[in-house]
Amino acid sequence: MSRRYSPKRRKSSRNKVETVSVEDAVENALEEISKEIKVEEEPIEEEFETYELEDIEGVGRVTAEKLRNAGYYTVRDIAFASVKELAEAIGSEDRARALIIKAQKLIFKGKTFMTAKEFWESRQGIRYISTGCKALDDLLGGGIETKAITEFIGEFGAGKTQLCHQLCVMVQLPYDKGGLNAKAVYIDTEGTF
Fold it and tell me: What are 19's strand-pairing partners?
């Protein structure tokens, strides 16, 4: 047996009953909500600042003109060019290499850049803290990764705090017991102790 929807009736200010459809009710609710929410539009920042070719150290008017004639219009074009292609445009491989490095330094000024080798080396220092449960460690790819932020999400009473307490104990254990032979600091931001 199916139930039929009967439109809600509401009293208007003149004590008349008016029928409101579900679609109208939803639309009215959305309009009210959108009035309450003010969306601030943030300007979209470009990934790289825009520089002129002449902003590269050592590039004058004549060199900039050669580069433009060869199809290099921005500092970014130079920064991502190959040495061989750029050397064909300006006539010197050494000068092309130097221009690419200067262009990269200019557009990446204030930004961090890491080579694949540096990234690989940084990953070599990562260790895993055992949770004390082999099945959970396997699900996590070996345990809780160091040098990372791990967030536990779940309902009240799901065991998040208990797992954190367990990790505080496990990290202090020796390496052969699944720990890191280290110390732990537990910060309770909700004052639940």
Answer: 9
Residues 166, 83: Cα–Cα separation, whole Å: 54
Q: Concatenated DSSP letters for 135-152?
A: HHHHHTTSSEESSS----
44, 38 contact by CB (below 8 A): no
Q: Which amino acid is at 36?
A: E
Tell me how far apart the alpha carbons of residues 128 and 173 are, in angstroms, rounded to a whole number.
Answer: 12
* Cα 119–chain centre separation: 17
What does the block give as tokens for 120? 């690989």
Q: Give one word for 186, left, alpha or beta, with left for phi > 0 and alpha for psi -120 to 50.
A: beta
- Output phi, psi for 150, to 5 deg: -115, 130
DSSP 8-state assignment for residue 39: P
Extract the tokens encoding 32: 């009210």
What are the pLDDT digits (tens) for 118-156? 889 988 989 999 998 999 999 998 899 998 888 889 998
Can you tell me the distance from the alpha carbon of 107 to that of 47, in angstroms, rounded to the nearest whole number?
10
Reduced to 3 states (helix: H, G, I; strand: E, B; else coil), residue 175 is: helix
Is the pTM of the predicted complex or chain greater than 0.90? no
Fold of 16-113: DNA polymerase; domain 1 (1.10.150)
